[in-house]
Fold this sequence. Notes:
Layout: H1 2-7, E1 13-18, E2 32-36, E3 41-46, H2 48-57, E4 64-67, H3 80-91, E5 102-103, E6 110-111, H4 116-128, H5 133-137, E7 145-150, H6 154-162, E8 167-172
Parallel strand pairs: 7-8
Antiparallel strand pairs: 1-3, 1-4, 2-3, 5-6
Amino acid sequence: xxxxxxxxxxxxxMWAVITxxxxxxxxxxxLVIANYNSHEQYIVAGLEEDFFVFQESIQNLKARIIPxxxxxxFHSPFMRKSSEKFEQFLKDQTFHALKKPYxxxxxxxxxxxxxxQEFIDMLVKQLYCxxxxxxxxxNFTDADHFIEIGPSKVLTNLMKKIxxxxxxxxxxxxx
Length: 175
């Protein structure tokens, strides 16, 4: 349901920006940081015309910029309308008490006990708030193995940069 609703609001685009400099002061108009992937990799989302101004403003940073092959500006305010519909959908669903700790990439905090509305709030915010991946992963300081299950090795490669001494594995699953 989430994916279907997000498809209704496809506008904007996303770019990976690799730099050691904080990017917030360079953002222009519609642009936001959609993902904090590591201490040197950010995903910027927004309208393409605003990105060209942003790109010029960070020229001196020697940043590497990679356009992402996505259909919209996910994890940004462009998904707000979809998030409202998603919230209505979730309110009709049954939720059970957590059996395991829940780590939200919206807050980068571990929760042990969320009521239904708190859990819905977290799921809804994932659509329009930045993904705090790097901050979330820092919660796993005593972990030494990471397994990614999905269509690529993006997260595995990030883990190798964040925790270079850990063992990170990727199992590709294509649906």
